[in-house]
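Q: I'm writing up a methods section and want to include an example of the input and output format. Could you take the sequence below and give the corresponding predicted structure tokens, formatted cleanly so I can copy it straight into the document?
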Amino acid sequence: MRILQTPPRFFPYVGGVEQVVLYLSRELAKRGHSVEVVCANEPAVGNGIIEGITVKRLAYCGKIGNTNITFSLPYELKRRDFDLIHTHLPTPWSADWSAIFSRIKNKPLFLSYYNDISGSGVNKIIANFYNATALKFLLKRAHRIFINQENYLNTSPFLKSFKDKIIVVPLGVDTAKFHPANVNKNNNEKIIFFLSILDRFHTYKGLDCLFSALKNVIPTTPVKLYIGGFGQLSDFYKNLAKETGLENNVIFLGRLSDEELLYYYSLCNFFVLPSVSSTQEGFGLVALEAMACCRPVVISDIVGVADSVRKENAGIVVKPNDSQELSQALKHLLLNEKECEQMGKNAYRLASAKYALHNYIDAVEKEYLTI
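A: Here is the clean output for your methods example:
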């Protein structure tokens, strides 16, 4: 099949959606499909072929919210031949044009719906207008709508009318990339790892809540918090760490390579993702990556793997935006080393079986072929 993917951005841009599209496109190309990605030129690395995927990057004039505005996108979609088009929300521009040209060309449209579109200030006004207008056309036009966790049907007010075309497909983790690794570590040092883009669109990852929880942990349980990621709020969080008295316990690592990611996943005692917004947290792929590295996770119950983590005893699940409960969970794992290690083994088994990448690719490819 000739498959056209239209994410907002693509590798080497760092982000959960971009990572998913890379995995999906790469594995489909390995299975003999022709896969092309059309996206914004962010970062500005130009066109080319990446792991068998043809990538066309378009100039953009700016952003509305977290969405790149690429005025040449309609022209590029018009001139391409494809058997199906797969687009991705919550960045609407590319998704809406994909819906329009799937109708013009009478080709199937597949939509990965990671989370609702929301915002604050002016962005909230824009999001509300979009949700009341263009989103309805997009959802109606889509032949299949992929969501990553079943609970999203209960929390999103926009999906309830389209249950007949919604497919629940949990994301998968690349276990060839993320796996248990031996690292040199001081066994007396306790390390927690957190990873996110540090910008205003990812404040829902709950780093400020983690700081509050950590402040209650440190007096009785010495620990270091390693923070991976970068963004426009990096300095804000560094100042916040100082203001809360955590500057000696928090280490900002900045942008991490794949090799460095594997190292810090393996170095930490456990990984934490205390997301606070059920409408914004699409899945939390980083939690899966940590689990594939044999590390337990402390996550809020809105993260996509929360039910599985709770059932398989692969970590601790807490209420969102509850720094007191979060601090108790951190203390428990820090003080119970053997239990922490066993949870890590459970996490590895869970990631390797239920969340193996081929399960995700198989499910999506099956829907492609069905349509």
